[in-house]
Amino acid sequence: LLRAGHGLQVTLTARQAMIVTGVTVAAGGFAPLPTTAVDVDLPTGTPLDLPVRYGAADCARAPGAAVATLSTSRGPQTVPLPDGGLLARLHAAECTEQALAAAVSLSVDPTVVPTVVDDSPAVRVTLRLIRRTPGQRVVLDSLGANVVFSVRSDRTTTPLLVLGPQQAGATLPVLLAPTRCDPHALAESKRTSLLAPPGYPEGARRRSAEPLPWCVSC
User: In the sheet that 138-140 helps form, which strands lie side by side, from edge to edge?
Assistant: First the structure.
């Protein structure tokens, strides 16, 4: 299994040639989705990649083994999908995201202060955490750079920002500086208006080993 967004790429190898007209992936801990319609000849012994979708994580349930049900010219076929723990990691990351979004909102203040860094133009902006639900400590660990600009804070210790259980909000000044302005970088950068500060609500690391890169429109 390979993952892209909320989709999976399923690699199938048939023992007997068949025509596949539909694929459904079911896995514990994820909402079911309708069958993905396809029209594919699956020859004997030749691996074939099929893109399919998977549902939203159900964080009240533990992740389980994945199974693909194929609608084929030989009738329904059920195929186990060994994934090396991929779906468990996706479940953990999505549940961390849900917990984080329920706890706080993260935004960039509209006030932009131009400055100069290393003889190049830059801007100072403010990241703002606003509490949505009480009772959970939220931590901002670090700031991730974009393809065309760097994002950093004057603070040198980690975590960079902590929103206490009783705090309504907190702010973090950051510096945005361009790092690449060449046509190739600008053409390759699909999401230049996004920041990715990894953060997590207290306790979320029981679900996910890594903080969640949280994208914020700037």
Answer: 161-163, 138-140, 198-201, 212-213
- Cα gap 35→77, rounded to integer Å: 13
Tokens of 215: 């994208």
* Helix and strand totals (H; E) in the chain: 2, 18
Q: Which of 89-93, 123-127, 184-188, 200-204 has the lowest mean pLDDT?
A: 200-204
Q: In what helix (H) or strand (E) does residue 96 lie, and over which residues does it extend? A: helix 86-103
Polymer length of the chain: 218
Helix, strand, coil percentages (3-state) for the chain, rounded to 5, are: 10, 45, 40
CB atoms within 10 A of CB 39: 8
Write the CB contacts of 116 (distance below 8 Å, at least 6 apart in sequence). Answer: 122
pTM of the predicted model, to two decimals? 0.64
CB-based contacts of 95: which residues, under 8 Å, 6+ apart? 57, 59, 204, 207, 208
Place of tokens 């100069």: 116
pLDDT tens column, 163-185: 888 899 999 998 888 777 777 76
Task: Please report where in the chains the tokens 């361009």 appear, as a residue.
Answer: 178
pLDDT of residue 3: 47
pLDDT digits (tens, 9 = 90+) for 119-142: 888 888 898 888 988 878 888 888
